[in-house]
Amino acid sequence: MASLLRSLILLLIVQSFLVAIAFGSKEVEEFSEALLLKPLPDRKVLAHFHFENRAPPSNSHGRHHHLFPKAISQLVQKFRVKEMELSFTQGRWNHEHWGGFDPLSSMNAKPVGVELWAVFDVPQSQVDTSWKNLTHALSGLFCASINFLESSTSYAAPTWGFGPNSDKLRYGSLPREAVCTENLTPWLKLLPCRDKDGISALMNRPSVYRGFYHSQRLHLSTVESGQEGLGSGIVLEQTLTVVLQPETTSVESNMQPSWSLSSLFGRQVVGRCVLAKSSNVYLQLEGLLGYESKNVDTEIEAHQLWKNAEFELSLKPERVIRESCSFLFIFDIDKSSDSEPFDLGLTWKRPSKWSCQQAPLHSSRFLMGSGNERGAIAILLKATESQEKLSGRDLTNGQCTIKANIFQIFPWYIKVYYHTLQIFVDQQQKTDSEVLKKINVSPSTDKVSSGMMEMMLELPCEVKSVAISIEYDKGFLHIDEYPPDANQGFDIPSALISFPDHHASLDFQEELSNSPLLSSLKEKSLVRSYTEVLLVPLTTPDFSMPYNVITITCTIFALYFGSLLNVLRRRIGEEERFLKSQGKKTGGLKQLLSRITAKIRGRPIEAPSSSEAESSVLSSKLILKIILVAGAAAAWQYFSTDE
Amino acid sequence: MQDLCIMAHHCCSRFLDLSQFKGLKGNQVTSCADILSAMLLRAIGQKLQMAYGLNARLLGFLKSSRDKVILPCGDIAALVYLWNPFTIVSCVGLSTSPIENLAVILALFGAVTRRVPLAAFGLVIATHLSLYPATLTIPIIFLLGYGLDAPPIKLFLQTRSVENEESSTSTVSKQAKLKQTTHLPFLWKTVAHFLFWVLLWSLYVLILCALSLNKYGGLEEMFKRTYGFILSIEDLSPNIGVFWYFFAEVFDFFRNFFLIVLHVNILFMLLPLAIRLKHRPCFLAFIYLAISSILKSYPSVGDSALYLSLWALFVNELLDMKFSFFLFCGYLGISLLSPVMHNLWIWRGTGNANFYFGNAIGYACFQIVFVVESVSAMLNHDRALKRSNSNHREVKS
Hints:
Distance between the termini of chain B: 45 Å
Largest sheet of chain B: none
Helix content of chain A: 25-40%
Low-confidence stretches of chain A: 17-25, 605-613
Oligomer: heterodimer
Subcellular location (chain B): Endoplasmic reticulum membrane
Largest interface: A-B, 36 and 45 residues
Order of helices and strands of chain B: HHHHHHHHHHHHHHHHHH
Low-confidence stretches of chain B: 1-23, 168-180
Family (chain B): Belongs to the PIGU family.
Number of helices of chain A: 16
Structural class of chain A: alpha+beta
Pfam families (chain B): PIG-U
Mean pLDDT of chain B: 84
Strand content of chain A: 25-35%
InterPro entries (chain B): PIG-U (IPR009600)
Number of domains of chain A: 2
Strand content of chain B: under 5%
Number of strands of chain A: 27
Shape of chain A: elongated
Radius of gyration of chain A: 36 Å
Radius of gyration of chain B: 23 Å
Pathway (chain B): Glycolipid biosynthesis; glycosylphosphatidylinositol-anchor biosynthesis
C-alpha cells in the first residue's frame, strides 16, 4: 500500500516536472493589474480598473492553464472567435465633462445595457451559427440575457460603419438589460485573484454601483503565433470604468473635492495580487496649467510635483510622466502591507478648473412626431469648442473636412423609410451628394431581421450643426411579442458616431515600462461616441381580450355562414308543396342518386329495386366517409409532425 | 349623348375636387383609373339593362298591368361609383384599390361584351394584383357560357310551352322544341377559348415577372411575398377588417388552424352560391366580390366602393330589398365613427384597441346583412317573376 502511494507521488512529481518543462520552454501566461484614477472637471472621479491576461500561443491550449480562465479559452477555441468585446453599462457617459477625445472615453464610453460584437474566424456561412452559440455561452457565463441577441431581429452585420472592417463581424446590443452585481461576480471570477486580493479588492459593490457611470468590459483578441502547429495566443482585457462622486466636506462650491481610495471605495489595497506580473496605480491629472510651461525633465522637479500649492498627494509617486496636456503619477502598490495599506489620496488646496478635450462633434439623438402611427428619428451633431484646435484635420483638395460615420440599427417594428433621409447642415438642407460620401442600408424584414444603416458624412470643418432625420412607421405586434411592461415602450439601440480621421491616444514623452494599461492608452483608438437610447411607445392591443376577440370574431363568421346558407336553401310556399309531393314518391337523396345514374346511363329514371341495395349503398358510403376522415387525419398528422 | 355630357361633367368636377388637394402627387393615375372604371361600369349596366328589358318582354312581363319603368342601372352604377365617399377617399388617399377595381371591372366588362381576351386579361391582372378576384373565374365562365343575367330558364320554358300549346298542334315538333331547350345551351367553345386566353395571359404575366425578378429570388420569392403575405396575414396593422386584431390576439398554437378556417370560409360559399345563382352570373360576381371584401386579409374601403357600385347595377331587381334604410344608416355611422375611434386610439392614446375593433365588427356585421339581404332579395325577385308568370299563364289558359 505504502509503495503504491509512493509510486503515485513520484508519478505526480514527474508529471508536474513535465508540465513545468512544457511551459518553461515557451512564453508563460501573464497577468497584470492596474488602476487609473482621474479627477474630472465636474467634481467627480473616474476610476478605471484594467486587468490583462495573456495566454501565449501553445499547442497545450484548452488542456491546462495556470492563470488564464479556462472558460474563456474554451469559448475562443469552440466558436473560433477572432476578436470579441462584451460590455455591461449603466449610466451615460458625459462627453462634455468627462472627455470625448481621449482613449479612455473612446474605448470605455459604451451604450447603456449590453453591447456585444465579435469577429469570427469561420467560413462566411457559419458566422451566424457561431454567433448564436456564442451568445448562449456568454449568457450562461455572465448571468445576463445575452441570448436574446441570438434572434436575427436583434443583431446586424456592419460592413464599415462600425470600427473593425470585416465581413465576419456581428454586432448586437440590448439597451434594456439591467446591469448589477450578478454580472460583476462572474466577471471577477475570471481574474486569478478574484476580488480577494490586489487592486480588485477595491470593488466594493455598494460603492461601485453608487457611481454615475459604470461600465464593465471584456475584450479578447487572438494573437496568431505565426508558427506551424502552434495555436493562437489569447489576450483577455477586462476593464471596469466607474465615475464616482467623492463626498465633499468643503463649503466652497468651486473647490474640487478631496478624496482618497478609502473614501471613494470604502476599502483599501493591502497588497498586490501575487499572481500579477505588475500591479500599478496611476493618477492622471489634467490641466495643471501652471506646470505645463515649466520644464520638468529633471527628476527632482518631477518629485516635487506631488506636493505643491495647488494640491497634495498622500503618497510619493514612483515616477511622474508628462503627457501632452496632463501628468501621470505612477505608484507601485508593492510597498503596502497590512499595517500600512495603500491609500492614495488627493487633497486640493486651491480651486482649480480645467476642461477636457472634446470630440469634433457632439452627438445627440431624439424622436420627433406624436401619436402611435408614425414618427421620425433625428440625430443632431453639434460642433464643440475644441474643434478648431484639433489636429486631425483632413485636407482634401485644399478643403478642410471632417468625416463622420454613423452606424445605426433599427428593430423591425420601426419601419424606416430610407428615402425620407434628410440632412441639414447649418440649418440648410443639403442634397445627399453634397455631404454624403458613402451609405449602406440593409432594410428590415418583418419579424425576420432588423434594419441597419451605415453612412459616412463629409462635412466642412467650419460646420456648426448637422441634423439628420429619417421617418418611420410603427409596427403592430402580436401580444406575445410585447414585453411584460408593454406600455413603457420599446428601446432603439444607440447609434454609433465615429470619426474615422480622428484618433485619440496619449503620447508620452518618455519611454515607458512595459505596462499593459499604458500601452493600450498609447495605441491610437478611433474617436467614437454613442448616442442616447430612444424609447419608442408602440400601440398596444388589449392584453386581456384574446378569448373575447376569438369568440366574437367566430360569432361573426357563424352569422355570415349560417344566414347566407339559410337564405340559399330557403324555399317558400308552392315550392315546398311541390317538393313534398315529389318527395312522397321517392326519398330526396335516393331520387338524386337515381337521377344521376339515369343521366349517366342515358336511361329513363327507374324506381329503386329493393331496400337491400340501398343499405349496401349506405354502408359503402359510410365506409368511404370513414376512410376519407381517417385519410385527412393521417395527412394532418403527417404534415403537423413534419414541421 | 346627354349621358356622355353628364359623365364628362362628373369627371371634370372630380378633377376640380382633386385639384384642391395640392401636394398629392400621382393622383392622376388613380383618378383616371376610377373614371375608366365608371365608364366601363356604365357600359356593363347598359348591357344588363337591355338584357333585362328583353327578358321582361319575352316573359310578357312588361305587357302586364304593372307599369314598371326600367331604371338606367348603368348610369346609376357609374354615379354610385364616382360619388361614393369610399371611392373618393381611396382615390385621394392614393390607395392602389382603384387600379385593382379597374382590373376587376375590366374582366366583367370583357365577359359581358363577350370580348374573351379582354375578360381573361382583366381576370389575370386582378388576380395578380390582389388574389381574391380569382373567385370571379366561375361567374365569368357562366357569363360566357350561358349569357347575361336572366330569370331562371324554367320560366322561359313554361312561357314557351304555353305559347307552343296555343300555336302548334303537332306533338312531334313540340317535343323537338322541348328537347332543344330543356337544358341550358352552354357554349363550351367560348369557355375553352376563355380558358386558353387565361392560360396565355397568366403565362405572359408570370414570364414578365420572372424576367424582372430574376435577380431578386425569382417567382418563388414573389409568390411568398405577395400571395403568402395575403394568406398568412403577417401584417397586424389595424384596418377595417377583423383579422388584424384576431391574429394579434390569437394564441400562436391556433394560428394555423384559424388561418385555414377563415380562408376556407370564402371557398365554402362559392359552390352553393354558384348553384343557386347560375342564371345570374353578374349578380354572382357581385356577391363573390362582396364576400371577399368582408373576409379579405387586408380589406379597404376601396373594395366596398367596388361592390356597392356593382350592387347598383341590379337596382331593377333589388328594389324590394329589406333593411335598406337600416343598412344605409349603418354604413354612414361606421364610416363616421371609424376615423374617430382610430384617432382616439392611435393618435390621442385616450381610446383603446377595442373601440376600433368594435367598429370593425359592426362594419363586418352590416356587410354580412347587406350580402344576405341582396341574395335573398334577388331570389325573391325570381320567385315573384315565377308567381306572376304562373298567374299570367292561368289567366291566359
